[in-house]
Design brief:
Blueprint lengths: L6 E7 L2 E6 L7 E4 L2 E4 L11 H19 L4 H12 L3 E2 L3 E3 L2 E7 L7 E6 L6 E4 L10 E8 L5 E8 L5 E7 L4 E10 L5 E3 L2 E6 L16 E6 L8 E4 L8 E6 L5 E7 L8 E7 L6 E4 L7 E7 L2 E6 L7 E6 L5 E5 L6 E7 L2 E8 L2 E7 L5 E5 L6 E4 L8 E8 L2 E9 L4 E6 L10 E9 L5 E9 L10 E4 L14 H7 L4 E5 L9 H5 L7 H16 L8 E6 L1 H12 L6 E5 L18 H4 L5 H10 L13 E7 L8 H14 L7 E6 L9 H19 L5
Helix pairs in contact: 2-3, 2-10
């Protein structure tokens, strides 16, 4: 065939020759500040066109033919299933006489939501998402209980989309009421009496999965009414690229309104509140800057606020109702404040010390009481509850410590294991080291390296280097059963804590955003050089992996240092840095990336954009791009255009495959357990095949 679905070039891996589908080019370009930029694959941005669907089909045929030819692919999937097949629980949430929690028996596509009376009661199923669709891709995204325990909002998404449908469940019968709310996205659920506040967009014009999302609105829904009767609480049509989010305090006395303007490059938010029954909002913070503010809880005098205003590592203040002034509760510490919660009448502050969790307990007014001893160097989440609760729950995990739920007695300050998963591995067989290496500019960068004990540092070990480096997100220690399977094959897993993340507070974040984004790539390159220099691996046995912003990271480093690694695994990556803000909520990322509409930021974006820096005739490592047809956060057009350009410019000269795997009925991440395991098996199969190794 010729034209869109013809072939170009080919290469050999062993005795196997792959022919890439050719991709039609169109005469399309844009002018940015006097610079002409060609965009020949613009047509792939139309996710609904027959041409795009045909292109997806042909690319998948080529990719899956390659993957199916790998003889040990099936064994990898079987191994991953064996390791992953153990019961997984969420921490329970108490409401009235019941505790609510989710449980996955092991390999269920979706976790099932249960409740039971007391901690020793008989469980009953509240909702089983596995029964909501034949293929198990309908996901329970929200379950929010009303304060009196009569109702719950049930939010579901289909096929991995970020769009949600809200329903209301009568908890006395576990039946759904007629209420049905559509076009919900970027929303919480804020109960007040027999109704709740939520955020939504107007019904999109054009593609629901690609059209730009504008005019975020806050509504109030009264249980038992239709969506058309919902009260519009807040909107701002003069600023269509703002987020408007609502929450209520635990006692439902106050409605809190958050307004952010990341589409204009601002990283913070304004904050308003409205007392129950009051006619209008009152301000806490009116100006949207790069400072963020969130209400932790309310006390009689006012709100406890978490903020980074003039405190890049975070602090807590009391906003007083009486004079609208603020006073210090928890001043900024040497370590970044990761989260603040309340429960049992106490304030729980989780700090990050060299990328591991430290939890301190304070009075609600900031008087230190004690530290919470943890099992080791890992990550915690939880410590939330009502003021009258005698205990709260938290989850602890680390690289060789499966997520374990603890029950913390607030009065005694003691923890005991509530639920511990039974995973088919011995944690004592594995070792994690935290190292610090120097990046290009001399900055010290932390990295965790995990492997099975007895590993020889002889440069031959298959190694995965994972990175993210963006949006103030900290990449913390966590457990992965499928990763244990890789370690048992002699693998090394390295997790680099790059600038741009939140590991050391806002200053660390700022060093890896906008005009300084190259620092993130330099950090990742230095991490790879460290692993090679210390003989954990070699360039021939190293794979770089990252998703979303991390997919951008892998794509950029592949252009800058293709000699440094053998396999690249960019997942759902932001690959077109000049047009990302034109799709769904992409404008939200301008605060981190900048915008091509700003000349100085354009120059930097254009200098590293993965799509625009592929070297014609360059030799690339093996690359398996992964994306999904229902990804409406980072639209698949990013990956489509990148793969087409990569194959066209580098397919013939490169010695290794340059492929794209497009999942169907999935979004920004796998939509069910089966898809997640199949994707992981294909990534390992691709990796080992191109390392020249066999999965034993």
């Amino acid at each position: 065939m010729t034209g869109i679905l013809g072939t170009i070039g080919g290469f050999h891996v062993g005795a196997q020759k792959i022919h890439y589908p050719s991709t039609a080019k169109v005469d399309q370009h844009d002018i940015y500040h006097g610079v002409k930029v060609e965009d020949p694959y613009r047509w792939l941005e139309d996710d609904r066109s027959a041409e795009t669907k045909a292109w997806v089909k042909k690319q998948n045929e080529v990719t899956f033919a390659y993957l199916e030819s790998i003889p040990f692919r099936g064994k990898i999937l079987a191994d991953l299933e064996r390791y992953f097949n153990y019961p997984k629980y969420s921490a329970p949430e108490k409401k009235g006489d019941y505790y609510y929690y989710s449980k996955n028996d092991g390999l269920q596509n979706q976790a099932v939501l249960y409740r039971q009376k007391g901690l020793d009661g008989e469980p009953e199923v509240v909702i089983d998402p596995n029964k909501l669709s034949a293929d198990g891709t309908t996901v329970l995204k929200a379950f929010s209980l009303s304060k009196d325990g009569r109702y719950a909002v049930v939010g579901t998404s289909k096929g991995g989309s970020d769009w949600q449908e809200f329903r209301v469940m009568d908890l006395s019968t576990l039946g759904m009421l007629p209420d049905r709310l559509d076009w919900v996205k970027v929303s919480g659920v804020a109960w007040q009496g027999n109704g709740f506040y939520y955020s939504r967009y107007p019904e999109p014009r054009g593609s629901a999965l690609a059209a730009k999302n504008e005019n975020h609105q806050v509504f109030f829904h009264q249980v038992g009414s239709s969506q058309s009767a919902d009260e519009l609480v807040y909107e701002d049509r003069e600023n269509p690229h703002r987020f408007h989010l609502a929450s209520t305090t635990r006692d439902e006395k106050y409605l809190i309104l958050y307004i952010s303007d990341r589409g204009k490059g601002k990283d913070g938010n304004a904050l308003y509140y409205r007392a129950a029954g009051a006619p209008a909002f009152e301000p806490v913070v009116t100006d949207i800057t790069d400072f963020s503010y969130s209400v932790v809880d309310n006390v009689p005098e006012g709100f406890l606020l978490e903020t980074n205003e003039n405190a890049p590592r975070g602090k807590v203040e009391l906003f007083r109702f009486s004079d609208k002034a603020r006073q210090s509760v928890l001043p900024e510490q040497a370590d970044p404040l990761k989260s603040v919660t309340t429960g049992g009448g106490k304030l729980f502050a989780t700090y990050t010390k060299n990328v591991t969790s430290v939890v301190n307990v304070y009075s609600l007014y900031g008087v230190f009481e004690r530290n919470v001893p943890l099992p080791g160097l890992g990550t915690v989440a939880g410590f939330s509850g009502e003021k009258e609760d005698e205990s709260v729950f938290y989850t602890y995990t680390s690289f060789n410590y499966p997520p374990t739920i603890f029950r913390y007695n607030v009065a005694q300050g003691t923890s005991r294991v509530f639920r511990s998963p039974e995973v088919a591995f011995n944690p004592d067989d594995y070792e994690t080291r935290q190292v610090f290496f120097k990046s290009k500019d001399g900055t010290g960068i932390p990295m965790f390296i995990t492997f099975k004990k007895g590993l020889k540092q002889d440069g031959t070990n298959p190694t995965v280097l994972y990175g993210y480096g963006g949006f103030n997100i900290s990449v913390d220690p966590s457990f992965s059963a499928t990763r244990i399977s890789f370690l048992d094959q002699g693998g090394v897993y390295a997790q680099a804590n790059l600038r741009g993340g939140g590991e050391y507070g806002e200053a660390w974040h700022e060093q890896g955003m906008k005009l300084r984004k190259q620092n993130v790539f330099d950090d990742f390159i230095a991490a790879a050089e460290y692993l090679i220099g210390e003989k954990y691996t070699s360039a021939e046995r190293l794979a770089l992996q990252g998703g979303s912003n991390g997919g951008l990271l892998v794509g950029a480093v592949a252009n800058q240092r293709p000699d440094l690694f053998r396999v690249g695994l960019p997942a759902v990556g932001v690959m077109d840095m000049l047009r990302f803000h034109k799709f769904t909520i992409g404008w939200n990322w301008i605060a981190d990336y900048g915008s091509s509409e700003n000349e100085d930021e354009f120059k930097v974006l254009y200098s590293y954009s993965p799509l625009h820096n592929i070297k014609a005739g360059g030799k690339y490592p093996a690359i398996l791009v992964t994306t999904a047809d229902h990804d409406d956060r980072v639209v698949p057009a990013h990956s489509f255009k990148y793969a087409a350009e990569l194959q066209a410019k580098a397919g013939a000269p490169s010695d290794y495959p340059l492929l794209i795997r497009i999942d169907t009925n999935s979004g920004h991440g796998a939509s069910n357990t089966r898809k997640a395991l199949e994707t992981a098996a294909d990534l390992y199969a691709f990796m080992f095949r191109n390392f020249g190794l066999t999965w034993k």
